[in-house]
Backbone:
């Protein structure tokens, strides 16, 4: 069935959030650091039959992670042949499709073979759903209600890379009543905040003209909230309320794809082009504390209990002392890697591009494997954890036979 027919046949169903406890409403989750809310018990072992609560077919292709809001699981996807970008909402309990809303048609830019035209994760404030797509040489932001009706749409900024046409990937983040979006390229570079009510610009900052794919994130740090963004040969901090530049620390390389992480008064980031580097900088912008040559290019890292954990591009798991950068241990698993690890309780889940997930303890003492799992044959979207369940986007097959799925993993 074609994407067009699927849209025409989709019935719009009411979506309510009554009685639902936990949510995962944007990229990096409830505390913006890819750490699940405490007290959850999720399965550490699974496959396409074991511990599957439900499985849903996902039309099109995308690397956007799912978000969970109310009784909905929402994700972005794109049909390459028909050049359609859309938002899909599934029933959280059953996985049945509640609605599918076409956002744009045509104007797809060239992109890297590992990227997609739906790599940006949606965001929600519990009342609206916000998505960003790149098409017709621009980034467009769209607000929908929980029934999939479009409330407003806004052309945010030009996005037309010249040197490397690798497409768009940054996810938006929500701060108070603002939707914050970044678009870095060698022809136009900006970070912008829109009012969630009507899409009007609250503030905008121009950035240096370099290629970069990182997502902005708001960190609660000593002294107040900071909007962090890595790449362009630095880590930048902005006042999320006004867009004012707080500080910029020279470090890293030109291009990063991962999102900054932080703990106490330290901020961590990694990049991969043209050089590889992982760094720790002071949260007041006073300088670099330590660095190494490990490459976590596309994926983000995890910081927990004074230690920084990473799953590098080459498939090596690392643990460093967050304050000093001392290597506590490393373990060769298998790469390449694009998705970001997730921490649930004291267990880290790290997935490679082949859809293999290692569950290991978040412990500085040694690498301690809990389980190794296989689901589908690809793993680009980052998994999320809500109310004791894991939501995992994967696919199986290649070319015309490729099929994407979203799994809900949990104890039945």
Residues:
């Amino acid at each position: 069935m074609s994407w067009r027919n699927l849209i025409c046949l989709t019935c719009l169903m009411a979506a309510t959030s009554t009685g639902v406890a936990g949510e995962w409403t944007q990229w990096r989750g409830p505390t913006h650091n890819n750490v699940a809310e405490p007290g959850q018990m999720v399965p550490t072992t699974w496959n396409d039959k074991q511990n599957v609560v439900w499985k849903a077919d996902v039309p099109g292709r995308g690397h956007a992670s799912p978000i969970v809001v109310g009784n909905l699981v929402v994700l972005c996807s794109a049909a390459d042949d028909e050049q359609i970008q859309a938002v899909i909402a599934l029933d959280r309990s059953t996985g049945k499709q509640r609605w599918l809303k076409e956002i744009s048609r045509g104007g797809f830019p060239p992109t890297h073979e590992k990227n997609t035209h739906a790599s940006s994760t949606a965001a929600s404030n519990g009342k609206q759903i916000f998505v960003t797509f790149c098409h017709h040489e621009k980034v467009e932001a769209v607000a929908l209600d929980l029934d999939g009706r479009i409330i407003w749409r806004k052309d945010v900024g030009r996005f037309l890379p010249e040197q490397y046409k690798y497409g768009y990937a940054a996810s938006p983040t929500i701060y108070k009543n603002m939707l914050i979006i970044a678009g870095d390229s060698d022809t136009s570079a900006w970070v912008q905040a829109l009012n969630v009510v009507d899409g009007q610009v609250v503030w905008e900052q121009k950035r240096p003209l370099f290629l970069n794919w990182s997502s902005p994130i708001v960190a609660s740090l000593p002294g107040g909230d900071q909007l962090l963004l890595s790449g362009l040969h630095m880590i930048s901090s902005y006042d999320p309320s006004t867009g004012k530049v707080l500080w910029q620390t020279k470090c890293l390389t030109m291009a990063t794809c991962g999102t900054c992480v932080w703990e106490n008064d330290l901020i961590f980031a990694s990049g991969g082009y043209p050089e590889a580097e992982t760094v720790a900088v002071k949260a007041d912008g006073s300088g670099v504390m330590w660095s190494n040559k490990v490459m976590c290019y596309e994926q983000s890292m995890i910081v927990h209990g004074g230690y920084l954990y990473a799953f590098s591009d080459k498939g090596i798991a690392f643990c460093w002392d967050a304050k000093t950068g001392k290597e506590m241990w490393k373990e060769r698993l298998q790469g390449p890697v694009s998705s970001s690890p997730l921490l649930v309780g004291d267990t880290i889940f790290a997935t490679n591009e082949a859809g293999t997930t290692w569950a290991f303890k978040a412990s500085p003492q040694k690498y301690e494997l809990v389980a190794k799992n296989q689901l589908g044959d690809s793993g680009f979207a980052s998994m999320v954890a809500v109310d004791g369940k894991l939501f995992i986007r994967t696919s199986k097959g290649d070319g015309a036979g490729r099929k994407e799925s979203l799994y809900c993993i949990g104890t039945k």
Observations:
- The chain is about 0% helix and 45% strand.
- Helices lie at 3-9.
- The longest helix spans residues 3-9.
- The longest strand covers residues 97-105.
